[in-house]
Structure to design on (424 residues):
């Protein structure tokens, strides 16, 4: 077992019951306080720990780094670029410093005053500078539902789907961190019975419940990452809400795929949970039939049991759960996705982001988008305040939560929240 994942570890920093951030998590993010610029941080319970302060006091002096500038950067890219061995050493070091049986930091009131912040007193920022962003389409339930609605109920999956982890290159400039407010986008749409397209705010505003992984490796053009090495190139994961305008999407996506219906905003959770912290929650993936091509063949437990939830909070009302799903349903796993992404020699960079695609389960209450939950608007959902939703309304806040739990340890992501404002 990885030492820092040991369920018996306890921190001297208080961890409330059902917190996503016990000592076994140790996620990484970028925060700023009233008096400081954005810096790398980790979180235990409801306490944010400033890693630049710990670096100031010499806690990272003997970890084999040439210089400590990565602990003072405004994004995590330089820290992540140190590679998987370093990620592990750093997590282990922090695990020791926060351990209740260790007095190294626990006993230093002066340092604690400078380095520890209540989570509600800080602002979280984009954890990485995202160079490139890919969105996959890897949930068989989601692809089947969409195929049924938009194409042919009897041949819902296109012939390539079980052979290729289908994906497209998205836009990174509009990926933002939880807490964002995003205006309803405008665009071209065309009703089935209309002769010509019109222009205006989307009427079918939707979310897509996804997880995303972030790469921690730079490759050269021409280089491929084999499936059995792919996980070494993945630093960690976040919740990913891929906001979508279904009416714009329907009119524009033929023949090259989604464009303006998807690139006006995607919202991530602020803390990157490392693949190492998620190790205890691995499970087997679904059987892949027909057999995949050799470059996509994998062995071992490559799926992860992460419980997912989507809630809608109306302007005045309280939040209602509209979907419960699980990351373990993914047909294509992250290692296969990254192997496929690079099999043609496409180069990748530290900080690149890869969305899973909407994660739907088998049952109607586990569908990861309003498109599926309301079945194209034919089955409105009832919220707890009595109002109905076919799609997302102005002033609704969309909240996504995710956590894994096993043997009494809960490792989670916190949340991705975004408020939808009227079109401008
Ligand atoms: Mn998507």
């Amino acid at each position: 077992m990885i030492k820092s994942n040991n369920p018996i570890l306890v921190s001297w920093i208080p961890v409330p019951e059902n917190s996503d951030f016990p000592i076994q998590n140790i996620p990484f993010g970028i925060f700023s306080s009233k008096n400081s610029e954005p810096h790398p941080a980790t979180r235990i319970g409801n306490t944010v720990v400033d890693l630049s302060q710990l670096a100031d006091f010499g806690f990272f002096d003997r970890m084999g780094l040439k210089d400590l500038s990565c602990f003072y950067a405004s994004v995590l890219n330089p820290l992540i670029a140190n590679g998987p061995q370093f990620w592990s050493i750093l997590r282990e070091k922090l695990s020791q410093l926060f351990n209740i049986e260790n007095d190294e930091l626990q006993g230093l009131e002066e340092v604690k005053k400078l380095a520890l912040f209540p989570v509600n007193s800080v602002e979280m920022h984009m954890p990485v500078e995202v160079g490139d962003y890919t969105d996959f389409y890897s949930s068989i339930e989601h692809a089947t539902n969409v195929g049924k609605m938009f194409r042919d109920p009897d041949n819902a999956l296109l012939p390539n789907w079980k052979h290729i982890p289908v994906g497209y290159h998205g836009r990174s400039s509009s990926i933002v961190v939880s807490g964002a407010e995003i205006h309803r986008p405008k665009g071209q749409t065309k009703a089935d019975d209309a002769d010509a397209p019109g222009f205006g705010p989307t009427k079918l505003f939707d979310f897509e419940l996804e997880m995303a992984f972030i790469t921690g490796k730079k490759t050269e053009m021409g280089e491929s990452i084999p499936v059995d090495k792919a996980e070494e190139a993945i630093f960690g994961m976040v919740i990913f809400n891929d906001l979508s305008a279904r009416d714009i999407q329907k009119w524009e996506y033929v023949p090259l795929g989604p464009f303006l219906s998807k690139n006006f905003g995607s919202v991530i959770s602020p803390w990157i949970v490392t693949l190492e912290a998620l190790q205890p929650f691995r499970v087997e993936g679904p059987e892949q039939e027909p057999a995949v091509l050799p470059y996509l063949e994998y062995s071992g437990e490559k799926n992860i049991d992460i419980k997912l939830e989507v809630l809608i909070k109306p302007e005045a009302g309280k939040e209602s759960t509209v979907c419960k799903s699980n990351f373990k349903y993914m047909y294509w796993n992250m290692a296969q996705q990254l192997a496929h992404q690079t099999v043609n020699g496409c180069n990748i960079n530290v900080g690149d982001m890869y969305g899973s695609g909407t994660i739907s389960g088998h049952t109607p209450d586990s569908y990861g988008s309003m498109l599926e939950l309301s079945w194209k608007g034919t089955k409105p959902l009832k919220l707890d305040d009595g109002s109905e939703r076919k799609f997302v309304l102005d002033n609704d806040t969309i909240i996504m939560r995710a956590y894994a739990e096993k043997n009494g340890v809960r490792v989670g992501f916190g949340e991705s929240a975004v408020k939808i404002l009227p079109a401008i």
Remarks:
- Helices lie at 51-56, 77-80, 84-98, 109-115, 140-150, 246-252, 334-342, 370-373.
- The first helix runs from residue 51 to 56.
- The radius of gyration is 22 Å.
- Residues 133-421 form a domain with the Fumarylacetoacetate hydrolase; domain 2 fold (CATH 3.90.850.10).
